[in-house]
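To whoever is on call:

I kicked off a structure prediction for a single chain this morning and the downstream step that reads the tokens threw a length-mismatch warning. I double-checked the sequence; it's 210 residues and nothing unusual in it as far as I can see. Pasting both halves so you can look.
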Amino acid sequence: MSRYTGPVCRLCRREGEKLFLKGERCYTDKCAIGRRAKSMAPGQHGASMKKQKEYGTQLREKQKAKRIYGLHETQFKNVFKRAEKKDGMAGVNLLILLEMRLDNIVYKMGMAESRREARQLVTHRHFTVNGKKANIPSMTLKLGDVVALSERSRSLEKIKDLIANLDNRQSVKWLDVDKNNISAKMIAVPTRDDVDFPFKEHLIVELYSK
């Protein structure tokens, strides 16, 4: 199963808004959205794209969520199926399950500049969950779980740079981040208000309900 490896700024241009896929760069003048018209999608015919119909609007919302959290179509659909089986609103459950992924938590605790970088760090076994090695970015954490930087990784230059910038990163209220030990404990289940991107999750539900 392949993963998109092209320029991520192209994905933001396709959606017509910032998806914050490159971390700090997205807040600077180097961001592609800031230098191009928001309506200009990539490609030869990007500037002449027609107004979207209902299906297109729903599809674009799903694509935004997929791209922000870095999932394949099958992975995303499987998470949605899990969300449907839980009590409550399927769209809200979907976003909460995405927030509770291991790669997202590494990003939220400030140990990566983007979810894409967090996914790579997890894959390379730089973090542990409850003291055990973890290398599955899609792992869903539970209340009370502790994510920590592994001891062997602390001497790496890239990791040192991330640790040095921890004080400049704002943590979320549902994680208890220990910046001295480079760990984070999940002290609450995230809510809809904790999702920092203005998703219209009902459009995703409508799309999968067709």
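Update from on-call: the warning came from a stale cache, not from the record. Cleared it. Sanity check on the structure: The two ends are 26 Å apart (CA to CA).
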